[in-house]
Amino acid sequence: MDYSRFISKMSLNRKPSGISEMRKYLAEPSPSLVWLASGMPNPQLFPFRDATFSLSDGSVLEIGQDLMATGLQYGPTPGFIPLVQQLKDMTLRNHNPPRWGESDLLVTVGCQDGLAKALELLLDVGDCVVVQEPCYSDVLCILAPLTPKFVVVAADEKGMCPLSLRKGLERATQDGGPAPKVMYLVPNACNPTGTTMDEARRREIYSLASEYDLIILEDDPYYFLQYDDQEPLPPSFLRLDTDGRVLRFDSFSKIFSAGLRVGFVTGPAPLLERMTWHMQASVLCPPGITQVMVSELLRKWGDDGFKKHIAKLREFYRAQRDTMLQAAEKHLTGLCEWTVPKGGIFIWFKVPGLRDTTPMLLERAITRDVVLVPGRDFMVEEKKPCQYMRAAYSCATPEQMKEGMKNLAQLVRDELALRKES
User: Is this model's pTM higher than 0.85 or not?
Assistant: First the structure.
């Protein structure tokens, strides 16, 4: 596949860092190698020597002096070498990409760092990008400085609608503007709606992306937080990618720790090479010590231990979801509408009686001791009124969720009364 039309002018002007490129020679150094190439600090002067982490299952994870020194030093830009191999093995097991021989993997400073670098790689100011609406709000923030032309695609209970996508692409290619280049989507437990695409819809959307020659940015931080007992899980877009047009973004934020800031992107090697050059010129390399922590935990657990951990997460978050849904049914029936999320940590509420939830949530919700995110934050036209709002059930206790839904119901009643009076 020819990627030349997708590369932005800024990315075309990037060049690799000679010093960072030389670090690849440290992957398997000769015992007699004398390294005089880069300005690495002397590890003998690091104040940290080793570490022991207590795990939630009662066991411990030990990081010895040599591994600690490695984690505290500048590392290869693509990532800590043992972790990169573990992630490649995981990707093969879970997705088995058809074009794996032409693919590569890059560790990023969280999933969002990878998304930001990919969008800068692919888009010039004023280029055309395809997004589902509602769309993850921080991606809209990343896109804002690029002032792109949007193809806004409607969504239903199964996610992005293929018919809406086709119509949007037809209009975009007929109006004389820039041809669409990139499509951003969240296939599983979409933030903010919680919807998950079934396999048939994924295949239809991928077919349209091939027809209109789009790069797909598959943002999938909730891949392991799907609650239906369906096995196997619906195939990822990376699994369907026979053309080499998918950049897939994964994260450990929702399954290990958000503060680790360890994500990774998988996709065509020519695109990842330019993202690597961007990494070299920005963060140099992903955080070393947190990569070591993730790698050692994966090594300690093995595949069976990792699956056991994921099963525990699914059980917990499914119970959290069900508790909030029960509270919503009790207090919000007749006031709000919602769909049951098949994964993730959000419920997307609609208030049919209101034209816009924003004033209610930003100006008056705090007086009722409840806070949700206005739906307008997830819309391409941020000034346009929106009847929706997003609630997160990940951290609240069952008692807090019950109280929160009760308070939200009273807030909505107050707002409806206020609208009638005005």
Answer: yes
